[in-house]
Amino acid sequence: MTPRKQYLYKAVVDLKRTLSISNKRHLTTKQLLRRSEKCIREHNLLFNNLNDSTKIFVQSQMKSQSLKPRGSRFSLDDKSFALAVYKKSAKAYRMMPSVFALPSRKSIMDLLRKIPLEPGINSQIIEHLKLVVSGFKNELDKTCVLLFDEISLAAGIHYSQSEDKIIGIEDLGRNVRRTKFADKALTFIVRGVKRKFKQPIAYYFAASGIKTPDRVVALKEVISAVQSTGLNIVGTICDQAPTNVAAINILMRETVQNYVKKGIEKQSFGFEINGQEIVPLYDAPHLLKGIRNNLVTKDLAFTMNGTKRIAKWKHIIDFYKIDKYRLDVGERMVPKLTDSHIYPEKMRKMKVSVAAQVFSQRVGSIMLLLSE
Fold first, then answer.
1. What is the distance between the alpha carbons of residues 125 and 344, in angstroms, rounded to a whole number?
2. Other C-beta atoms within 10 Å of 215: how many?
3. What angle do helix axes 212-228 and 242-262 make, rounded to 10 degrees?
4. Beta-carbon neighbour count of residue 108 at 10 Å?
5. pLDDT reported for residue 40
6. Which of 106, 121, 204, 251 could cross-link with 271 by S-S, CB 3.0 to 4.6 Å?
7. Which residues contact residue 131 at a Cβ distance below 8 angstroms, ignoring those fewer than 6 apart?
């Protein structure tokens, strides 16, 4: 074979080898493309079965897991999800970063500080409620009750540079501020009757509690705002604080006066705001304590099976002594009853469980059995 033929032969062999390698690479690329398309289809199928929150969380984890903690960048949705988890359980959230890529506590606290919260009606909450309520298909889902109560605060003031105002003095919203140290906060929450939801609506700062006239104004303001969202308030629930009772009585009298002006007899049980009846209710724990406190100082006259009877706190004291000091039987019939349940000077009057245990079915049935 001449040198020229040898050269051509070698060139042909090299070209065949190159062509074979190219064909293999092309085949491998096609296989990879097919596998990628299959993976994408399965991935999309998997994601289509997830809700939006789960999709966002999974995508965030896929993006952030390979990054260093200080190199991660989280979206507003990521931070909102993290804040919701943190509010459910701060202890659990401190453990989760060891498994998931999550924003730091400082990041979510910074997000929380950006939310404008001021005493009075929060317009952003109301607008969000309107959006949520518009998605309720069943009218019963819109039925709710308004809960309000006062909590005690440690008096103190500080200057908010971002808001350019002093925080800690009496603030009733509507630019009504008074130069008194606030040591009470009145909060309002709506809670669903059929559909399970609850949402804080407003809060107010006051010195030594909000006075009755201001409380009436706050009630009207909050109820009107909630009604504007499409929710149907059917009742209010509060404790039996004198200011609460007085405010409700004022609303009841105003409703009666409106009916008198129209020449119509009032037949409803509650008061009306914007033409809608709202029934005032008192929470059961306070009612239970109220009954117990009244029975301690007063006798209760009642009729049972056509016979007039009188219930006295002394009856409960006598029953307690019989149960505690009897020596013929080792086990007590009601071992949970103690001196703090029975004797007024030792009674823990703010504990609901103390009143509930005295009026329990077990105590009542045993007393009835002994009386017979």
1. 45
2. 26
3. 70
4. 23
5. 60
6. 251
7. none
Q: Are 209 and 243 in contact (CB under 8 A)?
A: yes
DSSP state of 18: H
Please check whether residue 145 is in contact with residue 233, taking contact to mean a CB–CB distance below 8 angstroms.
yes
Q: Of 198, 238, 236, 202, give the one whose Cα is nearest residue 221.
A: 202
How far apart, in whole angstroms, are the C-alpha atoms of residue 84 and residue 77?
A: 11
Question: Bridge partners of 143?
Answer: 232
Angle at 118 (CA atoms; ends 112, 121), nearest 5 degrees: 115
pTM of the model: 0.69
The DSSP call for residue 316 is H
How far is C-alpha 57 from the geometric centre of its chain's CA atoms? Answer: 23
Q: What pLDDT does residue 191 have?
A: 93
Helix H or strand E encompassing 104: none
Rg (CA), the chain: 35
How many beta carbons lie within 10 A of that of residue 173, not counting itself?
Answer: 19
Burial (Cβ within 10 Å: 0-12, 13-18, ≥19) of residue 207: middle
At 88 the pLDDT is 84
- The residue written with tokens 């706190």 in the block is 313
Query: In the prediction, which pLDDT does 263 show?
Result: 85
Q: In the chain, what is the straight-line distance between the N-terminal and C-terminal CA atoms, in Å?
A: 130
Judged on CB neighbours under 10 Å (0-12, 13-18, 19+), 37 is exposed
Non-local CB neighbours of 81 within 8 Å, separated by 6+ positions:
53, 56, 57
By three-state DSSP, how is residue 97 classified? helix
Confidence (pLDDT) at 227: 92
H/E stretch holding 99 reads none
User: What integer pLDDT is reported at residue 26 of this predicted model?
Assistant: 62
Give me the count of residues in the chain: 372
Whole-angstrom Cα distance, residue 64 to residue 62?
6
> How far apart, in whole angstroms, are the C-alpha atoms of residue 229 and residue 223?
10
String of b and e for 232-267 (b: at least 16 CB within 10 Å)?
bbbbbbbbeeebbeebbebbbeebeeeeeeeeeeee
Q: What is the rounded CA–CA span in Å between residue 90 and residue 7?
A: 78
- Residue segments in the chain with a per-residue pLDDT below the cut of 70: 1, 23-30, 32-33, 36, 39-48, 69, 327-330
